[in-house]
UniProtKB/TrEMBL annotation:
It comes from the Bacteria. This is DUF2029 domain-containing protein. The lineage of its organism: Bacteria, Bacillati, Actinomycetota, Actinomycetes, Streptosporangiales. Keywords: Membrane, Transmembrane, Transmembrane helix. The chain crosses the membrane at residues 31-49, 69-89, 96-114, 134-155, 162-178, 231-248, 255-273, 285-303, 310-331, 351-370.
Amino acid sequence: MKSPASIKKAAEWALPYWTRGQAGRETPQDLFRVLYFGWLAAFTLKVLGSAWDVSWHFKWLRDDLAPPHLLNSAGTALALALTIIHGYTGYGVDKAALRLIQWGTGIFLVAVPLDLINHRVNGLDITSWSPSHIMLYAGTFFMIMGVVRGWFMGAPPGRERTVVLAVFLAFFLENVHFPEQHQEYGILSIGAWDNHAVYAEPILLQFAADQMGRPVDRTMMTEFALPVPDFLYPVYAVVVGLAVLVVARLMIGRFGAATLVAAAYVGFRTLVWPLLTFTGFPPSALPFFLVVAGLLVDVAFLVRMPAVRAVVGSIGVTAVAYGALVAQSAIMGPVYGALQGQKGLLGAPPLVTASAVWAGLGLMVVWLAAEWIAGRRDLEPVDAAPVIPATAT
């Protein structure tokens, strides 16, 4: 706990900055770092809470004041404070970053009471794919997008800029992949049932069975643990998960960027896994295939052919777009192969092989969109990013 003297010193440092200003004002580097390290702390709290949350809901009956919700709420409170600071002072963000952060925070705060009402009306509603839950992810999506832009546009060149950008993008990947954890926990819960072991407490199973109007049996367990179509997991993972990795490679601008972001997220899930299981919470399948996907994205960017792209550009299709099309076509097979291999060796949600067609089409669209936007915005590698100069206080 900080002493009164250290709190007073921090207040004396911060108060001169508490002035009204427009987004985009020049920001001293020490203040800029404090703001964005504050965002790192906020997202860390939210990620720790969310990592615990799914496992909690596969064991206990829902409670609004459950410890994972309180931990996540602490992160949300810090995020709200930072949003207010950015909005009032204008420090650390341009107009686009500020609007994304404000809209994201607003959507999230609206979604919280809607989610509480949803649970009051519909009971358990364990699925991660419910409308109110999707609003929570959407709010966090825009919030992190604004933070990524603010850091990308304002941090000075160097290793810290690259590493922190990668961490923010790993938070981004965690947020978009979060609903997939329902299937990752669900498939192992069904396996435990088949082996005459049950992770969930009897009160949770009985509540779910009563809500479905059937006895506690395997059919009820399947509806409880895997309530969405089997094709959703691989298609969503490929289209949305790989889209984040493509954006990471474009923004960081270096080979290994996509692999680093994927490995950071999967590494976090791997570290948390024993902490949860050794304390009696249900285990989940881990998305190791995302690391393979990240490596494939990096390789795809490495091998694109400028000469071929130039020819294609002459008929009205951009070079980058053609490169993205070739890259997307080349990595679909290995990604689905990695999914199938993980399913056989380590466990993974059901894999509908035929869904690869739709996953491939979706990935092609989002990859081309990412490349087009990057070309329009003229994204540069991190060492060429603009610097927000310091000003005297």
